[in-house]
Amino acid sequence: xxxxxxxxxxxxxxxxxxMPSMRLLSVLxxxxxxxxxNWQQRADFGEGRKARMGHHTQQNVxxxxxxxxxxxRDSPLSSPSTESPPSSLSSPxxxxxxxxxxxxxxGLLPREHNGGYFFQEQLVEPRxxxxxxxxxxxxLIDDFGWGNAGWHAKxxxxxxxxxxxxxxEEGIDLNRHYVYKYCSPTRSAIQTGRNPIHVNLQNLxxxxxxxxxxxxxxxxxxxNMTGLGTKMSFAGYRTHMIGKWDAGMxxxxxxxRGRGYMSSLHYFHQSNNYWTQTQHACQGRxxxxxxxxxxxxxxxxxxxxxxxxxxxxxSPTGDGCKEGKKGDHWxxxxxxxxxxxxxxxxxxxxxEKDAEHPLFMFWSPHAVHTPLQxxxxxxxKFDHIKKTDTRGRHRQTYAAMVSFLDDAxxxxxxxxxxxxxxxxxxxxxxxxxxxxxxxxxxxxxxxYPLRGGKVSNFEGGIRVNAFVSGGYLPSHxxxxxxxxxxxxxxxxxxxxxxxxxxxxxxxxxxxxxxxxDSISMVDVILGRNSEQLDEEEEHRGSVVEPRRELLLGTAxxxxxxxxxxxxPQKYKGxxxxxxxxxDGLKLLIGDHAQAQWTGPQYPNxxxxxxxxxxxxxxxxxxxxxxxxxxxxxx
Length: 634
Prior knowledge:
By secondary structure, the chain is α/β, with parallel strands linked by helices. It is built from 14 helices and 21 strands. The chain has helices at about 60-65, 65-70, 100-105, 160-170, 185-190, 230-235, 335-350, 375-380, 395-420, 460, 490-500, 505-510, 520-525, 570; strands at about 5, 135-140, 170-175, 175-180, 240-245, 265, 280, 285-290, 290-295, 300, 360-365, 425-430, 465-470, 480, 485, 540, 545, 550-555, 575-580, 585-590, 630-634. The chain has a 10-stranded mixed sheet with strand order 10-9-6-5-11-2-12-13-3-14, with helices on both faces. Helix 7 (about 335-350) packs parallel to helix 9. The protein is globular. The chain starts with a strand and ends with a strand.
């Protein structure tokens, strides 16, 4: 649809700025000697509600809970926050707390989990088929370009995603699934069920804080918000998080376990090295960003899971790297193979006969985020791209990484089928933002035929590859395409309703933080949205669309998110950058880089010399800029 672009009014507040005083929950983990081990490739690895408009700012959101806990700043390894919930929480007696009590008794989560609010959650009737709670698999891919998915690029021989293509054919293609334009805000939104304007708009480095707010003034999710893992744990699920976190790490409340995941194998940062798992350095020694939380056991650095390489900066194909003693043995310790194997191990250990405790797996692969690194056997499959590729072989490497990920997804779904769990599984897959096309294509992605990419509010930056699949879906929805709006944070309420837990966030409510924005898509994925129409619901034909509009956030001109804004004095702090309506109309506010389209083969040898998609708007040539007196339709 068409959309209008108009000048944004200055916001009344400033955005949260980076301050170097935050104490991090970072731990130095150095490489350890390895024993020689024979690694083998797995034989099957190659198997083929309201939206609230207004000038909300990050500082508003993060400071909202200040009166609740002023002065209670935890040290990095201290106990979680100790709010004072109602006294009845300390002695749970009702059936509503049966799963929470079991989780505590089994040592899976502490009794004081979620600031003591764990026992204040409320069970409701599950809205699944015949009240059955399905297993839930959420796959959040990083930087996955629209034009790099096979079901969107059927005529492109460079794109090979047969596993995902088949899952789309067996499920629901979510053709208008939207997220934030880059990593951390999307991840914070999914974990809390909130539009990023109400949880986290900035993609700051982890050493960033607001010293005026010792409660919530940290990078990532405000500590007083209830995580998706907590909701599903209360509903009786066995909850696991594997892969990239990037939703905070300042205190125990900010970690995956603090957000309700009973086990995890993850890295905290925006990225790390696929081969060494390192990111940054301390006193000249590389920091290994890899963390493990065992089911009912210890939590700490994932020692001996990380790989050892001849240098701190190995080649893109990891030449000479060796897996750790407990690391991946398929591909010399390649990180996404390690994560895929961990997902499969969790599935193998899960008791599929225990209907009261189904599986909730949040799998967030590193791929296809930079650095572009992949095993050589996959890179060589795409040698035919090299002739027209960039000098850095960005397009070839990216295509190989997508292919590797597709095979990993095939392995995981096969594990569910072998275990007899697939027929009771709902699988959701989406990207955290559009593919990165900036700076000549160094990120390797392509969003053709959509305009723009990552860090842009054009379609290529926020409309992402997404689908629902799994044997739990009714037969009449399989092989369909849903054209209604879906937001990444809608899965919070959707999963809560499927699992039978009230999605309302009582802890945030008591801290005077914004409520959830999540709208349940249960009726969509179970095909119940074509029944009797509510006169207030938006509908196309006979299909009810639960979401009618979607606010688009932006962090204005401060911080990492929008470097080089042309008119920073006019745009400081605004957080609503536009809106999309279910009828196809879209409004964007302000200046926008990447205001152009790529071709079907991008990046290539010509793109590296173009200034069109420069990340910095001061030097980018493809920018839509508007005078304060008006705008126009494009």
